[in-house]
Automatic annotation (TrEMBL):
Protein name according to UniProt: p-loop containing nucleoside triphosphate hydrolase protein
Organism: Gloeophyllum trabeum (strain ATCC 11539 / FP-39264 / Madison 617) (Brown rot fungus)
Any GO MF annotation of the entry: hydrolase activity
Keywords in alphabetical order: Hydrolase
């Protein structure tokens, strides 16, 4: 019979190879990047999520700001254990899986519910599932690795590992308000970090601007166009998109659909 091994009745099996697509979702603190990543996680088949915050050094190794004499969790040089994150991404790219020893502490943090319309999610879920089936029939399994983080576009090796690069741009005043409304962040050790007075204006926002100075023209994180330093960066502005997070999910899925078709 056609499609069988000669002289046997065992159907020939197509070897399925795995291709990992790493999607970077960057932006400032409280820009909605983790919320977007979790919505995409529910939509995309064969998907996993990685939180850059899980790669912060132990609390006792976080540097002290030289001017304000408080721990600086935001300076790009010391806020992330870059070699550990780079190694982790290489492992995910090679295996399509989260290493079994990895432990995330994201679940300890406050989870703000920002829903999207079920019809938006279901429409894209069906589209990506159909695309996955078509790929697998041709012998390729796509795994989506969603990486969210506030310093995604600072380290060259991390940037180079990203197949899709998305940035959520939210104005200063909105970021400051959202950060103030948060009750704190849990560290990997389980401790609760609360911002000292004026921490956003003195530490968080200046570090964000400095870390993205080369990403946007003139170092303008509020209005500058993306530079060539981060190729193919897609900038999404949640406050300028109709229907808020629903619109951002829709636009992000369009970006991922386009990337999939170019593979």
């Amino acid at each position: 019979m056609p499609g069988e091994y000669p002289g046997t009745s065992i159907p020939q099996q197509t070897e399925v190879k795995t291709r990992v697509v790493i999607v970077g979702i960057g932006g400032a603190t409280c820009s909605g990047k983790t919320t977007l990543a979790k919505h995409l996680l529910r939509i995309l088949p064969n998907s996993l999520i990685i939180h850059q915050d899980d790669f912060a050094p132990p609390q006792e190794l976080i540097p002290i700001h030289p001017e304000y004499n408080v721990q600086d969790w935001d300076a790009p040089e010391g806020a992330i254990d870059w070699p550990r994150l780079e190694s982790f991404l290489r492992s995910v790219k090679a295996t399509g899986e989260i290493p079994p020893e990895h432990r995330s502490h994201d679940h300890l943090n406050e989870q703000r519910d920002v829903p999207v319309r079920s019809e938006t999610a279901q429409r894209w879920k069906a589209a990506f599932e159909a695309a996955a089936r078509a790929r697998e029939e041709k012998g390729e399994r796509i795994v989506w690795a969603l990486l969210d983080g506030f310093l995604l576009y600072w380290d060259k090796e991390v940037v180079d590992s990203l197949d899709v690069r998305i940035f959520l741009r939210v104005p200063y005043d909105v970021l400051k308000k959202r950060r103030h409304e948060r009750h704190g962040y849990h560290t990997a050790e389980g401790a609760l970090w609360r911002d000292p007075p004026n921490y956003f204006d003195q530490i968080v926002y200046p570090a964000y601007v400095r870390a993205h100075a080369g990403v946007f023209a003139g170092g303008d994180v509020e209005k500058g166009a993306p530079t060539d330093n981060v190729a193919d960066l897609v900038v999404l502005e949640p406050l300028a998109v109709e229907n808020g997070m629903d619109g951002i999910v829709d636009r992000a899925c369009e970006v991922l659909d386009g990337a999939l078709k170019r593979l």
